Amino acid sequence: MWAALLGFVFFMFDVSARSGSWEPLGQPYFDNSTKRETTAAVGQPAFLHCRVRNLADRSVSWIRKRDLHILTVGVHTYSSDARFAALHADGSDEWTLRISPAQPRDSGAYECQVSTEPKISLSFRLTVVVSKAEILSGPELFVRAGSDINLTCLTKHAPDPPSFIYWYRGDQVVNYAQRGGISVVTEQRTRTSRLLIARALPHDSGNYTCAPSSSESASVIVHVLSGEHPAAMQSSSSNPPRLDYLLTSSFFTIYSLNYDSRHRNWIATRE
Ligand SMILES: *[C@@H]1O[C@H](CO)[C@@H](O)[C@H](O)[C@H]1NC(C)=O
Ligand SMILES: *[C@@H]1O[C@H](CO)[C@@H](O)[C@H](O)[C@H]1NC(C)=O
Ligand SMILES: *[C@@H]1O[C@H](CO)[C@@H](O)[C@H](O)[C@H]1NC(C)=O
User: Fold this and answer.
1) 33 CA from centroid of ligand 1 (Å)
2) Which PANTHER family has this protein been placed in (predicted)?
3) What is the pLDDT of residues 93-128, one digit of tens each?
4) Which of 40-44, 182-186, 223-227, 239-243 has the lowest mean pLDDT?
5) Distance from the alpha carbon of residue 150 to the mean position of ligand 2, in angstroms
Protein backbone atom coordinates (compact mmCIF):
# COMPACT_ATOMS: atom_id res chain seq x y z
CA MET A 1 0.00 0.00 0.00
CA TRP A 2 2.82 2.39 0.99
CA ALA A 3 4.65 1.52 -2.19
CA ALA A 4 1.54 2.35 -4.21
CA LEU A 5 1.12 5.70 -2.39
CA LEU A 6 4.80 6.54 -2.90
CA GLY A 7 4.45 5.62 -6.56
CA PHE A 8 1.42 7.90 -6.83
CA VAL A 9 3.30 10.81 -5.22
CA PHE A 10 6.22 10.34 -7.64
CA PHE A 11 3.77 10.16 -10.49
CA MET A 12 2.18 13.46 -9.37
CA PHE A 13 5.61 15.08 -9.00
CA ASP A 14 6.59 13.94 -12.46
CA VAL A 15 3.42 15.34 -14.05
CA SER A 16 3.68 18.62 -12.16
CA ALA A 17 7.34 19.08 -12.93
CA ARG A 18 6.70 18.50 -16.58
CA SER A 19 3.75 20.86 -16.80
CA GLY A 20 5.33 23.39 -14.46
CA SER A 21 2.05 23.70 -12.55
CA TRP A 22 3.85 24.01 -9.17
CA GLU A 23 5.11 27.41 -10.26
CA PRO A 24 2.10 29.70 -10.30
CA LEU A 25 4.32 32.61 -11.42
CA GLY A 26 6.37 30.54 -13.88
CA GLN A 27 10.13 30.13 -13.88
CA PRO A 28 12.46 33.13 -13.91
CA TYR A 29 13.72 34.03 -17.36
CA PHE A 30 15.99 36.66 -18.87
CA ASP A 31 14.75 39.57 -20.84
CA ASN A 32 17.21 39.21 -23.69
CA SER A 33 16.58 42.68 -25.07
CA THR A 34 19.25 44.34 -22.93
CA LYS A 35 22.63 45.12 -24.44
CA ARG A 36 25.19 42.39 -23.82
CA GLU A 37 28.23 44.02 -25.40
CA THR A 38 29.33 47.11 -23.51
CA THR A 39 32.16 49.54 -24.07
CA ALA A 40 33.33 51.84 -21.28
CA ALA A 41 36.12 54.38 -20.99
CA VAL A 42 38.97 53.72 -18.62
CA GLY A 43 38.50 55.70 -15.41
CA GLN A 44 34.74 56.02 -15.93
CA PRO A 45 31.97 53.84 -14.47
CA ALA A 46 30.93 50.78 -16.52
CA PHE A 47 27.41 49.32 -16.31
CA LEU A 48 26.12 45.85 -17.24
CA HIS A 49 22.34 45.53 -17.21
CA CYS A 50 20.67 42.21 -16.47
CA ARG A 51 16.88 42.01 -16.58
CA VAL A 52 15.16 39.00 -15.00
CA ARG A 53 11.40 38.37 -15.15
CA ASN A 54 9.51 36.26 -12.57
CA LEU A 55 12.40 36.36 -10.14
CA ALA A 56 10.16 35.84 -7.07
CA ASP A 57 12.42 34.99 -4.09
CA ARG A 58 15.47 33.95 -6.12
CA SER A 59 18.60 36.05 -6.14
CA VAL A 60 20.65 37.45 -8.99
CA SER A 61 24.45 37.21 -8.87
CA TRP A 62 27.17 38.68 -11.03
CA ILE A 63 30.13 36.42 -11.77
CA ARG A 64 33.41 37.28 -13.47
CA LYS A 65 34.03 34.48 -16.00
CA ARG A 66 37.82 34.83 -16.07
CA ASP A 67 38.26 33.46 -12.54
CA LEU A 68 34.65 32.58 -11.63
CA HIS A 69 34.84 35.24 -8.94
CA ILE A 70 31.45 36.03 -7.39
CA LEU A 71 31.20 39.82 -7.49
CA THR A 72 27.72 40.48 -6.15
CA VAL A 73 24.76 38.51 -4.79
CA GLY A 74 21.50 40.42 -4.68
CA VAL A 75 22.48 43.95 -3.75
CA HIS A 76 25.53 42.84 -1.75
CA THR A 77 29.10 43.07 -2.95
CA TYR A 78 31.06 39.86 -2.34
CA SER A 79 34.29 40.97 -3.88
CA SER A 80 36.87 42.71 -1.71
CA ASP A 81 37.26 45.11 -4.64
CA ALA A 82 34.92 47.96 -3.74
CA ARG A 83 34.71 49.08 -7.37
CA PHE A 84 32.01 46.42 -7.88
CA ALA A 85 28.44 47.15 -6.84
CA ALA A 86 24.99 45.81 -7.73
CA LEU A 87 22.36 48.43 -8.44
CA HIS A 88 18.72 47.44 -8.07
CA ALA A 89 15.60 49.48 -7.44
CA ASP A 90 12.91 47.77 -5.33
CA GLY A 91 10.27 46.19 -7.52
CA SER A 92 12.26 46.51 -10.72
CA ASP A 93 13.44 43.60 -12.90
CA GLU A 94 16.84 45.12 -13.44
CA TRP A 95 20.06 44.06 -11.70
CA THR A 96 22.92 46.23 -12.83
CA LEU A 97 26.58 45.56 -12.19
CA ARG A 98 28.51 48.80 -11.78
CA ILE A 99 32.30 48.83 -12.01
CA SER A 100 33.61 52.22 -11.03
CA PRO A 101 36.14 53.30 -12.07
CA ALA A 102 36.62 50.76 -14.88
CA GLN A 103 40.16 49.57 -15.66
CA PRO A 104 41.46 47.87 -18.81
CA ARG A 105 41.88 44.63 -16.83
CA ASP A 106 38.07 44.60 -16.27
CA SER A 107 37.60 43.80 -19.96
CA GLY A 108 36.15 40.34 -20.50
CA ALA A 109 33.14 38.14 -19.92
CA TYR A 110 30.68 38.43 -17.04
CA GLU A 111 27.70 36.32 -16.15
CA CYS A 112 24.37 37.25 -14.64
CA GLN A 113 23.18 34.19 -12.71
CA VAL A 114 19.81 33.33 -11.18
CA SER A 115 19.66 30.91 -8.24
CA THR A 116 17.11 28.55 -9.76
CA GLU A 117 17.66 24.79 -9.65
CA PRO A 118 19.43 24.31 -12.00
CA LYS A 119 20.95 27.77 -12.29
CA ILE A 120 20.27 29.88 -15.34
CA SER A 121 22.74 32.43 -16.57
CA LEU A 122 23.29 35.02 -19.27
CA SER A 123 26.71 36.17 -20.38
CA PHE A 124 27.87 39.73 -21.03
CA ARG A 125 31.02 41.19 -22.52
CA LEU A 126 32.73 44.36 -21.34
CA THR A 127 35.45 46.21 -23.23
CA VAL A 128 37.28 48.98 -21.39
CA VAL A 129 39.00 51.31 -23.83
CA VAL A 130 41.60 53.99 -23.41
CA SER A 131 40.13 57.06 -25.04
CA LYS A 132 42.62 58.98 -27.18
CA ALA A 133 41.93 62.44 -28.53
CA GLU A 134 42.83 63.23 -32.13
CA ILE A 135 43.27 66.58 -33.90
CA LEU A 136 42.12 66.24 -37.51
CA SER A 137 44.61 68.64 -39.12
CA GLY A 138 47.57 67.29 -37.12
CA PRO A 139 50.42 66.76 -36.62
CA GLU A 140 51.33 69.98 -38.44
CA LEU A 141 49.22 72.80 -39.90
CA PHE A 142 50.22 75.76 -42.08
CA VAL A 143 47.94 78.80 -42.05
CA ARG A 144 48.23 82.13 -43.88
CA ALA A 145 48.34 85.20 -41.67
CA GLY A 146 44.88 86.74 -41.59
CA SER A 147 42.98 83.48 -42.03
CA ASP A 148 41.53 81.26 -39.31
CA ILE A 149 43.21 78.60 -37.25
CA ASN A 150 40.51 75.94 -37.16
CA LEU A 151 41.41 72.94 -34.99
CA THR A 152 39.01 70.00 -34.64
CA CYS A 153 39.59 67.61 -31.76
CA LEU A 154 37.81 64.25 -31.63
CA THR A 155 37.52 62.34 -28.38
CA LYS A 156 37.66 58.88 -29.85
CA HIS A 157 36.14 55.91 -28.04
CA ALA A 158 34.92 58.13 -25.22
CA PRO A 159 31.50 56.62 -24.44
CA ASP A 160 30.33 59.95 -23.02
CA PRO A 161 30.95 63.53 -24.08
CA PRO A 162 33.85 65.04 -22.14
CA SER A 163 32.74 67.16 -19.20
CA PHE A 164 35.45 69.72 -19.96
CA ILE A 165 38.22 70.32 -22.46
CA TYR A 166 41.46 72.22 -22.05
CA TRP A 167 43.11 73.77 -25.10
CA TYR A 168 46.77 74.65 -24.58
CA ARG A 169 49.28 76.56 -26.64
CA GLY A 170 52.63 75.27 -25.45
CA ASP A 171 52.17 74.75 -21.73
CA GLN A 172 49.76 77.68 -21.34
CA VAL A 173 46.00 77.32 -21.54
CA VAL A 174 44.80 79.28 -24.59
CA ASN A 175 44.09 82.69 -23.20
CA TYR A 176 40.81 84.01 -24.52
CA ALA A 177 41.03 87.21 -22.56
CA GLN A 178 44.21 88.57 -24.16
CA ARG A 179 42.92 88.29 -27.68
CA GLY A 180 39.44 88.48 -29.23
CA GLY A 181 38.16 86.13 -31.93
CA ILE A 182 38.85 82.89 -30.05
CA SER A 183 36.10 80.39 -29.46
CA VAL A 184 35.75 76.77 -28.41
CA VAL A 185 32.70 74.85 -29.56
CA THR A 186 31.69 71.25 -28.92
CA GLU A 187 29.31 69.13 -30.91
CA GLN A 188 27.61 66.68 -28.56
CA ARG A 189 26.64 64.11 -31.15
CA THR A 190 30.15 63.55 -32.50
CA ARG A 191 32.09 64.47 -29.33
CA THR A 192 34.03 67.00 -31.30
CA SER A 193 35.62 70.13 -29.90
CA ARG A 194 36.72 72.94 -32.17
CA LEU A 195 39.13 75.73 -31.38
CA LEU A 196 38.76 78.64 -33.77
CA ILE A 197 41.19 81.54 -33.80
CA ALA A 198 40.06 84.19 -36.25
CA ARG A 199 42.55 86.31 -38.26
CA ALA A 200 45.64 84.46 -37.07
CA LEU A 201 48.93 86.31 -36.75
CA PRO A 202 52.46 84.83 -36.78
CA HIS A 203 52.64 85.05 -33.00
CA ASP A 204 49.62 82.68 -32.77
CA SER A 205 51.98 79.93 -34.05
CA GLY A 206 52.81 77.17 -31.63
CA ASN A 207 52.12 73.69 -30.33
CA TYR A 208 48.38 73.41 -29.66
CA THR A 209 47.11 70.63 -27.39
CA CYS A 210 43.56 69.41 -26.90
CA ALA A 211 43.18 67.80 -23.46
CA PRO A 212 39.67 66.45 -22.82
CA SER A 213 38.65 65.05 -19.43
CA SER A 214 38.97 61.25 -19.49
CA SER A 215 40.87 61.12 -22.80
CA GLU A 216 44.56 61.23 -23.58
CA SER A 217 45.48 64.56 -25.16
CA ALA A 218 46.51 65.30 -28.76
CA SER A 219 48.76 68.03 -30.20
CA VAL A 220 49.33 69.87 -33.48
CA ILE A 221 52.09 72.28 -34.47
CA VAL A 222 50.57 75.39 -36.09
CA HIS A 223 52.66 77.67 -38.32
CA VAL A 224 51.13 81.01 -39.20
CA LEU A 225 52.96 82.27 -42.29
CA SER A 226 53.21 85.87 -43.37
CA GLY A 227 53.82 86.46 -47.09
CA GLU A 228 55.55 83.40 -48.62
CA HIS A 229 53.50 80.25 -49.22
CA PRO A 230 55.51 77.04 -49.09
CA ALA A 231 54.44 74.22 -51.42
CA ALA A 232 53.44 72.12 -48.45
CA MET A 233 50.95 74.70 -47.29
CA GLN A 234 47.41 73.49 -46.71
CA SER A 235 44.90 76.15 -47.62
CA SER A 236 41.91 74.65 -45.81
CA SER A 237 41.83 77.58 -43.43
CA SER A 238 42.01 80.27 -46.09
CA ASN A 239 38.36 81.29 -45.77
CA PRO A 240 37.69 84.80 -44.52
CA PRO A 241 37.16 84.96 -40.75
CA ARG A 242 33.74 83.70 -39.90
CA LEU A 243 32.34 83.27 -36.40
CA ASP A 244 28.61 83.60 -37.05
CA TYR A 245 28.23 79.80 -37.48
CA LEU A 246 28.67 79.42 -33.75
CA LEU A 247 25.21 80.80 -33.23
CA THR A 248 23.41 79.03 -36.04
CA SER A 249 23.22 75.42 -34.90
CA SER A 250 21.50 73.96 -31.88
CA PHE A 251 23.87 70.98 -32.05
CA PHE A 252 26.62 73.14 -30.72
CA THR A 253 27.39 73.90 -27.14
CA ILE A 254 29.30 77.04 -26.40
CA TYR A 255 31.99 76.64 -23.83
CA SER A 256 32.54 79.48 -21.47
CA LEU A 257 35.94 80.23 -20.15
CA ASN A 258 36.60 80.44 -16.46
CA TYR A 259 39.74 81.06 -14.56
CA ASP A 260 40.45 78.19 -12.26
CA SER A 261 42.44 79.92 -9.56
CA ARG A 262 43.17 76.72 -7.68
CA HIS A 263 45.07 75.21 -10.61
CA ARG A 264 45.96 78.57 -12.13
CA ASN A 265 44.45 77.49 -15.43
CA TRP A 266 41.82 78.66 -17.84
CA ILE A 267 39.20 75.99 -18.28
CA ALA A 268 36.43 75.71 -20.85
CA THR A 269 33.18 74.51 -19.34
CA ARG A 270 29.98 73.58 -21.13
CA GLU A 271 27.12 76.03 -20.60
C1 LIG B 1 17.41 34.27 -23.97
O2 LIG B 1 18.64 33.81 -23.42
C3 LIG B 1 18.56 32.50 -22.86
C4 LIG B 1 19.87 32.21 -22.19
O5 LIG B 1 20.96 32.43 -23.04
C6 LIG B 1 18.21 31.51 -23.95
O7 LIG B 1 18.10 30.23 -23.40
C8 LIG B 1 16.90 31.91 -24.61
O9 LIG B 1 16.61 31.07 -25.69
C10 LIG B 1 16.97 33.37 -25.10
N11 LIG B 1 15.66 33.77 -25.59
C12 LIG B 1 15.52 34.49 -26.69
C13 LIG B 1 14.12 34.88 -27.04
O14 LIG B 1 16.46 34.82 -27.39
C1 LIG C 1 36.57 74.17 -39.40
O2 LIG C 1 36.91 72.87 -39.90
C3 LIG C 1 35.83 71.96 -39.90
C4 LIG C 1 36.34 70.59 -40.30
O5 LIG C 1 37.45 70.63 -41.12
C6 LIG C 1 34.73 72.47 -40.84
O7 LIG C 1 33.65 71.59 -40.85
C8 LIG C 1 34.28 73.85 -40.36
O9 LIG C 1 33.34 74.36 -41.25
C10 LIG C 1 35.46 74.80 -40.25
N11 LIG C 1 35.01 76.07 -39.63
C12 LIG C 1 35.33 77.25 -40.13
C13 LIG C 1 34.78 78.43 -39.44
O14 LIG C 1 36.08 77.37 -41.11
C1 LIG D 1 53.49 69.58 -28.05
O2 LIG D 1 52.98 69.62 -26.72
C3 LIG D 1 52.68 68.34 -26.17
C4 LIG D 1 52.06 68.57 -24.80
O5 LIG D 1 52.82 69.41 -24.01
C6 LIG D 1 53.95 67.51 -26.08
O7 LIG D 1 53.66 66.26 -25.56
C8 LIG D 1 54.53 67.37 -27.47
O9 LIG D 1 55.76 66.68 -27.42
C10 LIG D 1 54.76 68.75 -28.10
N11 LIG D 1 55.17 68.55 -29.49
C12 LIG D 1 56.29 69.10 -29.97
C13 LIG D 1 56.63 68.79 -31.41
O14 LIG D 1 57.00 69.85 -29.30
Assistant:
1) 10
2) DEFECTIVE PROBOSCIS EXTENSION RESPONSE 4-RELATED, DEFECTIVE PROBOSCIS EXTENSION RESPONSE DPR -RELATED
3) 999 999 999 999 999 999 999 999 999 999 999 999
4) 239-243
5) 6
Based on the fold, state whether residues 93 and 219 are members of the same structural domain. Answer: no
**Is the shortest distance between the CB of 148 and ligand 2 below 6 Å?**
yes
- 100 ligand 3 Cβ < 6 A: no
pTM value is 0.55
1-54, pLDDT tens digit by residue?
444 444 444 444 433 344 444 444 589 999 988 899 998 888 889 999 999 999
Asked if residue 196 and residue 148 are part of one domain, the reply reads: yes
**Domain residue limits at 177:** 132-270
The last residue of one of the domains, among 94, 111, 129, is 129
Query: Of all atoms in ligand 3, which is nearest to the CA of residue 207?
Result: 1
